[in-house]
Amino acid sequence: MPLGQSLTPEHLQSADPAGVVLVVDQDDNRPLDPRTAADRAMRTLEAIRLLDELPQACRLWVARPGEHVDPTVDALRGVLRTAAYECPKVAASLVEFSDSTQPAALARTLLHDGPPIECAWQGTGFSVLRLVPGAPETTVTSPPEALVRPDGSYLISGGLGGLGLLTAAWLVGKGAGRILLLGRSLPSAEARAKVEELRKAGADVEVIQGDIGVAGIAEKAVRKAMSARLPLRGVFHCAGQLHDATIARIERPILDTTWRGKAEGAWALHRATTGHELDHWVLFSSVASLLGSPGQAVHAAANAWLDGLAAWRRAQGLPATSVQWGAWSQVGAGQGMAERGVAMISPTEGVDALERILGAGYPLVAYSPIDLAQWTAPYPGAARSALFARQLGDRQGKDSGSSLPRALRESASDAERQVLLEDHITDCVREILGGTSLRITPRTSLVTLGLDSLNAVRLRVMLENSLGMSIDGGILWTKPTAAGLTDWIMHRMGYREEQPA
């Protein structure tokens, strides 16, 4: 069905589908619009949510005709990649095809029954998107002109946040003529102190308050940046708001808030700087757009739209670089990722990487020290994605080899099975919450222990993997105790005739 329409339960009532195909409607004459991408991302999220609630596995395909660069499709990649973590039984996948693609070949692709895949037909050629080991060169030949000009001005959106101020300090160190910091809110005391440090170092720094996603703010910022009669030479889009929410709980206001700062803000900067001879037009994206990130589908989609916009600008002959940053230490929204064992980018390392990336002229770079095997370990469905096949190799999404189903079958009574399951559930919760000595009884509310929506996704995935069965996403909220979950699971496994109330 067209992605311009919403998938509803009524579409699924007349059949027992093994899969659903959403076709991206293409109109080469339609102007690029981030709101269109937001609408399609929301419909895709709703479709994934609906299919994930079905008792049987039902695969989702997003099919995209045409071969031109389309940031809207890139935004959908962010959604699909995150779904691999949160909704693995949907196996959300993407196929691109052209007018010359044979219908039979496309049909074979849509009948694929493996892990999530992003693939494309180009004529008779078939390709699969995969990450490959490698890294940018560690040394870059100096460009013919300096990266930063003393006779140029530079605009930083999100300029009063940690990453924006770091970028400003780097520009000052490189001799930038003028810097304008655009921030959605008034500067904090820490931000004011940083700005004063830059000014004491001799920098011409101006602060302006405004939401980059609001009409007219980008144009105002560009005029302000050039008020000293220095030409605008660089734009750095560091703005954005991070709202964690699982796919099951994403509503349109959450998407709109994230989209306004990231995608609409970037588009506003594109329009406001058209006609300026820029050296750099830089988007601070996130590695979530490349890898997906549980609890961050909207964040991944909005940043993936940035990546697509950079490619689109390059196709128009305009400068653009999108950097898919990993989590930074000390600054940025990802500081808490260290608690999940994620290696962090230090400010010194990140600024050095930015300089090398700009010097090399890369259009799109992912920069993250993340251990992919560790990152995907709690989510075997995501680890099995074709995207990670070459990176993970033999470590890719192996089944847990759990002996629990066999132990349940061989148990002498339901009472014994109940104890096994309750103990297993509480062990999983302790692992997720990081408290091996945490006291949990079968009647303890898991919610009061701190099991939020993201941790609930992890618990669901762990139980599905160890039990070899599908578990309804909402059951963790209607049965929020080990005893309640055990009763529900035993019914689903056929050990009890009647489902408990």
TrEMBL record:
One of its GO terms (biological process) is antibiotic biosynthetic process. SUPFAM superfamilies: ACP-like, NAD(P)-binding Rossmann-fold domains. Keywords: Phosphopantetheine, Phosphoprotein. Residues 419-493 form the Carrier domain. GO terms for molecular function: fatty acid synthase activity; phosphopantetheine binding. Pfam families: KR (PF08659), PP-binding (PF00550). It comes from the Bacteria. InterPro entries: ACP-like_sf, KR_dom, NAD(P)-bd_dom_sf, PKS_KR, PKS_NRPS_Biosynth_Enz, PKS_PP-bd, PP-bd_ACP, Ppantetheine_attach_site. SMART domains: PKS_KR, PKS_PP. GO terms for cellular component: cytoplasm; plasma membrane. PANTHER family: FATTY ACID SYNTHASE, SI:DKEY-61P9.11. This is Carrier domain-containing protein.
